[in-house]
Design a protein that fits this description.
globular; 76% helix; mainly alpha; 185 residues; 10 helices
Length: 185
C-alpha cells in the first residue's frame, strides 16, 4: 500500500497514506515489539509530513522520530528504521529558517538534525540493503549536503547499475542520473 501511495497524485497520495497509517497504528498497537511495523509507520508518517506544512509537519516529524527510535531499540539492525532516521535527520537539517522558527513557537524547540548523522544512518541502511534505490538516493543527497562529494559520486555511479524494484524507482534513478550529471561526471 505504501508504494501505491507514493506513486499517486498528491491528493490521492495523502488519502492512501492516511489509510496506511491507520492500519500500521493498529498493527503496532497489537504487536508492540514488531520493529518492521514501527519502521513502516515512521516511513508513512514521514511521507505524509512531506505533504503538510508548518505545525503539522513538525508534529509528524516528532512521531517519525519516536517510531524510528522505537524500531531501532527493538531491532538495532533494521535497515528501514535506519533509513527512516537518516531521512529524519536530513529533513531536519534541511528545514528553512521560517519552518524552524514556527516549530520553535509551537513546540518549544526543534530537534537538531544533521547531514552527517543522516549520511551515517543511511550508509548503514544501504550496507544492509544495497538494492534499495530510494535509500541509495537519500544517501547520495545526504553525502552531498555533508560535503562528501567523492563518496556521493561513487554512490550515484553505483545507482546506474541498479534495476527498479518498486513503482517510483525509475524516477529516483532519473534523479540520481541528474545529480551525477550536475556533478560533472
Amino acid at each position: 500500500m505504501f508504494w501505491k501511495a507514493i506513486s499517486q497524485e498528491d491528493v490521492a497520495q495523502e488519502s492512501t497514506l492516511e489509510r496506511c497509517i491507520k492500519l500500521l497504528e493498529n498493527i503496532v498497537r497489537e504487536q508492540p515489539n514488531n520493529a518492521q511495523a514501527h519502521a513502516e509507520l515512521g516511513r508513512a508518517l514521514g511521507q505524509l509530513g512531506l505533504h503538510r506544512g508548518g505545525g503539522e509537519k513538525i508534529k509528524l516529524g516528532k512521531r517519525v522520530k519516536e517510531e524510528g527510535e522505537l524500531a531501532l531499540r527493538i531491532q538495532p539492525d533494521n535497515a528501514l528504521a535506519l533509513a527512516v532516521m537518516g531521512k529524519w535527520n536530513y529533513e531536519l537539517a534541511n528545514l528553512s529558517g521560517i519552518e524552524r522558527k514556527l516549530g520553535s513557537l509551537l513546540f518549544e524547540s526543534i530537534p537538531e538534525g544533521s547531514f552527517d548523522a543522516a549520511a551515517e544512518l543511511l550508509r548503514k541502511s544501504v550496507k544492509m540493503n544495497p538494492k534499495e534505490v530510494y535509500h541509495q538516493l537519500m544517501l547520495a543527497k545526504a553525502l552531498l549536503k555533508a560535503g562528501f562529494t567523492a563518496e556521493a559520486r561513487t554512490t550515484l555511479e553505483g545507482m546506474a547499475k541498479l534495476a527498479p524494484r518498486e513503482a517510483p524507482d525509475q524516477g529516483y534513478l532519473a534523479e540520481a542520473a541528474k545529480l551525477l550529471e550536475d556533478l560533472g561526471r
